[in-house]
Design brief:
- This protein is an alpha+beta fold.
- It has one domain.
- It is built from six helices and three strands, in the order ααβαββααα.
- It has a three-stranded antiparallel β-sheet, with helices on one face.
- A hairpin with a 6-residue loop joins β2 and β3.
- The longest helix has 12 residues.
- The protein is globular and about 55 Å long.
């Protein structure tokens, strides 16, 4: 299955399910989509300190997953560790199916049929 970026409304819906969530749902969703763009992952180094706190909260809620990758630098052999945040698309799709099952069934294969 190809990655399909989340829409603003899909992310707002998911954020609205988080208990005691503070802040404007739409503004937070826009910020998250700005970081991820058209990918399902973002490098941790790109995050601002306050945004990283939010990402940890979203990880606790299951919306994001943290991932680390280790590699060795070819120049001196030093270990280099990169940290990423990944959208948990399986959980997001499952939540979307629970909240609007009819819409999901109607639009699920539209783009596959066009190709």
């Amino acid at each position: 299955m190809k990655y399909r970026p989340l829409s603003l409304q899909e992310l707002v819906t998911i954020l609205s399910e988080i208990p005691d969530f503070r802040g404007s749902l739409e503004e937070v969703a826009k910020m998250i989509l700005d970081y991820f763009g058209f990918e399902n992952f973002v490098l941790d180094n790109f995050l601002e300190k306050e945004d990283r706190k939010l990402f940890y909260r979203l990880e606790e809620e299951g919306v994001l997953k943290a991932y680390a990758e280790e590699s060795y630098l070819p120049v001196n052999g030093a270990q280099w560790r990169s940290h990423f945040w990944i959208l948990d698309l399986d959980l997001i799709r499952e939540r979307r199916r629970r909240t609007s099952p009819v819409e999901e069934e109607v639009y699920e294969g539209v783009f596959e049929e066009i190709e």
